[in-house]
Design brief:
- With 243 residues, the protein is an all-alpha fold.
- It has 7 helices and no strands.
- It has one domain: Four Helix Bundle (Hemerythrin (Met), subunit A).
- The chain starts with 5 loop residues before the first helix and ends in an 8-residue tail after the last helix.
- The relative contact order is 0.09.
Length: 243
């Protein structure tokens, strides 16, 4: 019969316990460091609050309020000023999101106003430039068709009571559009044949086509996400029968 040393067993148990505690401490420290990195990078999305008066919301309201000024300058053929103003308005879309995530100022009002402001910015830029004859009609038709489609789909999902996450590719597509429209406006401030005009026109066409292409891919993803969210909501509804 083999004799078991009790002291050896106790030492073994203590060693096992110390090892488990050390692993738990390592995991906890790793998770804390990851959270700190996410907070510093601005990619951690806090839970939306009911606050109304925040810096991001003020920036969003300023974006909407400046759109009539852009259209006025555009109609007065102050093309260079309108170009820079549109670029400034579009740039605030990036900063309000960063500020909201970095300083925990994400709000329900902001999450509703931000996409509306984006749609209004694109709509004002598209209609303003095409009525002035600065942008090809075919590009504006494709752009507005994409915006109308995703807007109608979003309304349908809200009626269905489901929400889907914003895709990063959608933000990239909007960024390309925000680079495209003011480029067409700024090009009118330079004489034909100049390098600045040629470059701005190239930027307008290239970014416009890229924005429409990526926007179309985003629509397909939103359609897929929306259908999956509706199916999930229906399957989890009380009294539903799994299919």
């Amino acid at each position: 019969m083999q004799v078991v040393d009790l002291d050896t067993l106790r030492l073994h148990d203590l060693f096992e316990s110390a090892s488990c505690n050390w692993r738990d401490a390592e995991v906890s420290l790793s998770e804390k460091n990851l959270d700190d990195k996410e907070k510093k990078s601005g990619f951690l999305s806090p839970v939306p609050t009911n606050r109304m008066w925040t810096v991001p919301n003020a920036l969003t309201l300023a974006r909407i309020a400046l759109l009539p000024v852009f259209l006025l300058w555009l109609s007065d053929e102050r093309y260079l000023a309108a170009c820079f103003l549109y670029g400034f308005i579009a740039m605030t879309d990036f900063f309000d999101g960063k500020i909201a995530r970095r300083f925990d100022q994400v709000s329900h009002l902001g999450t509703m106003m931000d996409p509306v402001a984006d749609r209004l910015l694109i709509l004002a830029g598209a209609l303003g430039t095409v009525t002035q004859g600065l942008v090809p009609v075919w590009l504006i038709v494709l752009l507005l068709a994409r915006e109308l489609t995703v807007s109608l789909w979003t309304i349908y999902l809200q009626i269905a009571g489901v929400q889907i996450a914003v895709r990063m590719i959608g933000k990239v597509a909007a960024t390309f559009v925000f680079f495209s429209l003011p480029a067409f406006v700024g090009a009118e401030a330079f004489d034909p044949g100049t390098l600045a005009r040629s470059w701005l026109l190239f930027q307008g066409y290239a970014c416009g086509v890229a924005g429409i292409f990526l926007g179309s891919l985003t629509n397909l993803q939103y359609f897929s996400d929306g259908r999956a969210a509706i199916a999930s909501a229906r399957s989890s509804a009380p009294g539903s029968v799994p299919g």
